[in-house]
Amino acid sequence: MSARSLVVVSAGLSQPSSTRLLADRLTTATVERLSGFGVETSVEVVELRDLGHDIINNLITGFPSPKLSAAVESLTAADGLIAVTPIFTASYSGLFKSFFDVVDPSALTDLPVLIGATGGTERHSLALDYAMRPLFTYLHSVVVPTSVYAASSDWGTGADGGTGALPDRMSRAAGELAALVRDSERSSRVIDPFALPAGFSPVGGYGAQ
């Protein structure tokens, strides 16, 4: 079986970041599951905090920087995606949404995606289902059934494994993603991540603003 590529998008703003921590735990669990399937996996992490200026400039000018272009090309050629964002005002962060706005809407078709989010309290967990899942459904990605939300209390006192049901949710979600990535045929596709001017649509969307 050929190797698989996994891209991890983390939209955490602080350093260290609980968002990145969750992304790392999900990545480790997924790679372990793929290894159990006999699949070798390469991982690339995209830290959106390092691409903030590039993303905004691209939305304004329509032209990606080399650094942003490389991140988008890696994403659109990947066999699987782990996407994790902090929840701000009951939804994903603006930086998270802006990054996916610069990707051609058809470039993530059939991409297996595991969605995760972090927040201060458990009451924001529904944002995964009413905000994040519809975003990737619109992009025609294949979102795994189990999403993972981690509140501050889930990490307990030692930030390594998580407490309560969090490790179980991470394990279940990682297993679902690994199964899809194992069977992915996206590596054989030829994808142009900038088939349209980044973030613009010929009818409606940014082009009409």
TrEMBL record:
Transmembrane segments: none annotated. GO terms for molecular function: oxidoreductase activity. Coiled coil: none annotated. Keywords: Flavoprotein, FMN, Oxidoreductase. Pfam families: FMN_red. Residues 6-155 form the NADPH-dependent FMN reductase-like domain. InterPro entries: CE1759_FMN_reduct, Flavoprotein-like_sf, FMN_Rdtase-like_dom, NAD(P)H-dep_FMN_reductase. This is FMN reductase. It comes from Glaciihabitans tibetensis. The lineage of its organism: Bacteria, Bacillati, Actinomycetota, Actinomycetes, Micrococcales.
